[in-house]
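Subject: Protein entry, chain in single-letter code together with its fold tokens

Area: Proteins and the way their chains fold up in space.

Attached in line: The record itself begins immediately under this heading.
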Amino acid sequence: MITTAALALGDDALVLSHRLGEWAGSAPVLEEEVALANIALDLLGQARILLSLVGDEDELAYLREERAFRNSQLVEQPNGDFAHTIARQLYFSTYQRLLYGELATGDGPLAGLAAKAVKEVAYHQDHAEHWTLRLGDGTDESHARMQRACDALWRFTGELFQPVEGLDVDLTAMESTWLASVTDVLTRATLTVPEGPRTGAWAAGAGRQGLHTESFGRMIAEMQHLHRSHPGATW
């Protein structure tokens, strides 16, 4: 069903948008604060469109319980240091650009959104690649931090390619292309491609099933606090 796919992709965009928004006021340089905020706004726009295909976007964002969210576990991972944020963005934006590229060529209900979003995501991917190269091939410290980030988040990437009802794309082929693209970037950044399994400790597709990591509950509580504290308020 399209609602299943729209909910999964909408939750991915919503949660990552919130994570990136957490950098407001604390990014390493002002230019990056603006860049991350712009990426967050792009993702929020995607989330609004996708969630509106399912129901009321505000209710879906602010009134669901943790287990009702269907985002992948990758996007909910804490920002960590700047290297962790960049590694998370590299892994996800590479996937998202491939996915939207596939959806945009079809005539399904997500084709229109995908055609617009793929242009935004191309910038997200380019931004992440630029910083991966800059940090990986930079100082000893930046290289070590970027390697740790890539290693730590690697196990969450396999879930991105688990089947989602309503997404009519060749995920196996897309995964191969994703792996080749990420490998190329990491190699050029003088980083080692992680060798560990690309699935978490839980079953593959856990986030899509409503099973989330420990930090997600705290993030959702913060994201929903204002809306739940003042139900029905208008601004």
